[in-house]
Design goal:
Length: 717
């Protein structure tokens, strides 16, 4: 039987903006009293990391039991299978359509400037450097650039490239997406508005939302680069090497594991252990993270071990941002693999005392490594070079493949990919059972234990009601700060209202606010700070390559590595809060729930799983759909922590809203798209797949009425 639902119109600003009069003398913080719990804002990252450490320890134990070559071969088969889950299938059947746009002759070398199509109409700018004089086919180095706006044109990277050419190697250098001639985001003056790491993380996060790891596209570009090299008569396809530093070290590590044609690999200033990475700077930009990677039983060392016994050199520095201690652990574990294959001399590590840089010692060791293993002997001394200018090496007329060639971007190509997933979802039957199962699987939610620890932290009086402060244990020593507003006079039909304010509990209790009017109307109002809000808004992740618009996307990435979404964490917090409310209320008072902004997604997920625990739901300014994040080129990153990566393959937020409306009095007030703009009726019909039919009566577009309607909704329905 469907619940009858009424429409109410409400101004969402009443939820979010404090009124003029305030209670400045009231201290609404809870954690400040309890010094022992002063680290609570950082607990979320610690919780996710501990989850990772447990899985990494299980992997380590499994690896330590391996002794024989046959056992390592089995391990390699397992790793390859797991890597396929992270990268899916690479596309090598579309035409490369390479175009050489210019040639430079200088200093005994030839440089061909070109571009090719990694995917249909997805252009990659590149350059092929070759010694002019050569005997027979050339060994080639695939050079991967680190995070610089110039890509391989950086004088630092050119110095290494030109040294290889002087030593008789061909070098193929290509621009990663978001760098060189593939910068995607510009301001009104035509200047790049994002750093290279953010050029990766901003659209890369949308790729995660669609259910794919953005690393796929980085590796796809490299695989197609090798495809191109195999067509060149000057290149010896049996002597392919690969190297790169920092972000280039990431690409080198991935590509060497994923493409069998690479004979020798020398990743520089990247390889460490996830254990040490999580304990130092944490996950970095988007392509350096793979969905479920740690949950799949893998660590970074597996990228090296899966390619054994092919020649591999780890290039490291002692003060690198990627922990040298972790690098040493990788070396010790991985050398056992090569030894088991009878090729101990094919794996080595060079280490110098420096920061995140290519040192003279390390460069010369790398030259010597490739000279040996690509059969190109010679002098490995580092030589002086004169770099080309950026303009000289550009393959396109204006130095950008998007404006010159109207290339697909990472945003546009991901949008097309997501549309296929939506079509696949539409073909599946989504009922109560499958929706609950899909939510549980996609979020990583596990029901929380019913923790009994409740710490009362003081009370103060306001006119007509009191405010009590609590700490509620969520998990381990993780405490949630809570305010409980209690009316001095209970009224018939009074409710307990769980109120989730995205800006935090303290901002929700200003004079005249919706929360205050609810309590003055006789309802108990429980205001917690969930992870990411209020007193729990800050995390350990206050710096890094993926902090965009002040939002720690790298915290969200941590959850992706271990299959624990931040939505799941907040759902588990809601478990504890509902238990707390039932413990403290008499006669099991029905609980209604209100959420604003980003927290509406968390509440919608929880209420879908536990419809019996909540009797009424109000969502103010909810995100209309996860698909909207993928569709909006300039999305607002604050929506991401309440987004479930890959969920759109099985459900989206409109599916939750429709499901809730069948079971509860429900009100959605002014849904917004991912650019935080109010949705029009047309946009809502499109997101809710309604075509030309009327909107459901539980969606309120007109937001001109007062908070009184909220009170009536809570009280009368």
């Amino acid at each position: 039987m469907k619940t009858r639902i009424s429409i109410f119109l409400l101004c969402p600003l009443l939820f979010l903006i404090p009124f003029t009069k305030s209670y400045a003398q009231d201290d609404l913080s809870v954690l400040s009293t309890w010094k022992y719990y002063s680290n609570q804002p950082g607990y979320l990252y610690k919780y996710l990391s501990e989850n990772a450490f447990e899985k990494l320890e299980q992997r380590k134990t499994a690896v330590q039991k391996i002794n024989t070559k046959q056992d390592w071969i089995k391990r390699q088969a397992f790793v390859r299978n797991q890597l396929k889950k992270s990268f899916t299938n690479f596309q090598q059947n579309s035409p490369l359509n390479p175009v050489i746009t210019g040639t430079i002759q200088r200093d005994g070398m030839t440089v061909e400037k070109l571009y090719y199509e990694s995917l249909p109409h997805y252009f990659v700018s590149a350059a092929l450097f070759m010694p002019t004089e050569r005997r027979g086919k050339l060994p080639v180095i695939l050079f991967c650039s680190g995070h610089t706006p110039l890509g391989f044109r950086s004088p630092v990277y050119q110095h290494m490239i030109l040294n290889y050419v002087k030593k008789g190697f061909a070098v193929f250098a290509f621009d990663p997406i978001g760098q060189g001639e593939r910068i995607q985001y510009f301001d009104s003056d035509g200047k790049s508005k994002l750093s290279p790491t953010k050029e990766h993380s901003y659209p890369g996060t949308q790729v995660f939302v669609a259910g794919m790891s953005p690393a796929y596209y980085f590796v796809q570009d490299g695989i197609r680069a090798i495809d191109y090299l195999t067509t060149r008569p000057e290149i010896d396809s049996n002597r392919i090497g690969i190297t790169g530093r920092s972000g280039g070290g990431t690409q080198t590590t991935y590509l060497a594991a994923m493409d069998e044609r690479i004979k020798a690999a020398a990743p520089e200033c990247y390889v460490t252990t996830f254990d040490k990475l999580l304990r130092t700077m944490g996950p970095q930009d988007a392509e350096q993270n793979l969905i479920s990677y740690i949950s799949n039983g893998l660590d970074l060392a597996d990228f090296l071990q899966v390619r054994a016994p092919k020649p591999t050199l780890m290039v490291t520095t002692t003060r690198d941002i990627f922990s040298i201690e972790g690098a040493r652990e990788v070396y010790e574990e991985t050398k056992a693999v090569f030894k088991a294959f009878g090729k101990a001399d094919y794996f080595s590590m060079v280490e110098d005392d420096d920061g995140h840089a290519s040192t003279l010692k390390n460069r010369e060791a790398t030259y010597a490594f490739f000279q040996k293993h690509l059969n190109n002997p010679g002098n490995n001394q580092d030589e002086k070079t004169v770099p080309f200018t950026e303009e000289q090496l550009n393959a396109t007329p204006n130095g950008n493949v998007f404006s010159s060639l109207n290339s697909e971007t990472l945003f546009s190509i991901n949008k097309k990919y997501s549309q296929k997933r939506v079509v696949e979802k539409a073909a599946t039957l989504l009922n109560d059972k499958t929706l609950v199962s899909s939510i549980t699987k996609a979020t990583g939610y596990t029901p929380s234990k019913n923790f009994k620890e409740i710490i009362f932290s003081g009370r103060f009086q306001r006119k007509g009601y009191t405010i009590e402060k609590y700490l509620i244990k969520s998990k381990d020593d993780y405490m949630l700060p809570v305010l409980w507003l209690k009316p001095l006079q209970k009224k018939t039909g009074a409710k307990a209202v769980l109120y989730l304010n995205e800006s935090g509990k303290s901002e929700a209790v200003a004079s005249g606010s919706a929360a205050e009017q609810l309590v003055l109307a006789g309802h108990d109002v429980i205001l917690p700070d969930l992870s990411g809000a209020g007193e729990l808004s800050k995390t350990y992740m206050e710096s890094g390559d993926a902090i965009i618009e002040g939002v720690p996307l790298n915290l969200w990435y941590t959850g992706l590595l271990v299959d624990k979404s931040l939505v799941a964490v907040r759902m588990e917090e809601l478990d504890c809060l509902l238990n707390f409310i039932q413990t403290k209320t008499e006669n099991k008072v029905p609980v209604s729930a209100v959420a604003t902004g980003t927290l509406t997604s968390d509440l919608a997920h929880y209420a879908t799983l536990y419809s019996q625990k909540i009797d009424k739901i109000i969502l103010a300014n909810p995100l209309v759909s996860y698909q909207s994040i993928i569709n909006e080129i300039n999305y607002v990153t604050r929506f991401i922590p309440s987004t479930v990566a890959g969920a759109i393959a099985s459900y989206d937020l409109p599916d939750l809203y429709h499901n809730l409306a069948q079971k509860h009095p429900l009100m959605l007030i002014s849904p917004v798209n991912a650019s935080n703009e109010k949705c029009s009726e047309e946009a809502l019909r499109k997101n809710f797949n309604l075509k030309n039919s009327a909107l459901p009566n539980w969606i309120a577009l007109n937001d001109s009425n007062s908070t009184q309607q909220l009170i009536e909704f809570i009280t009368k329905h």
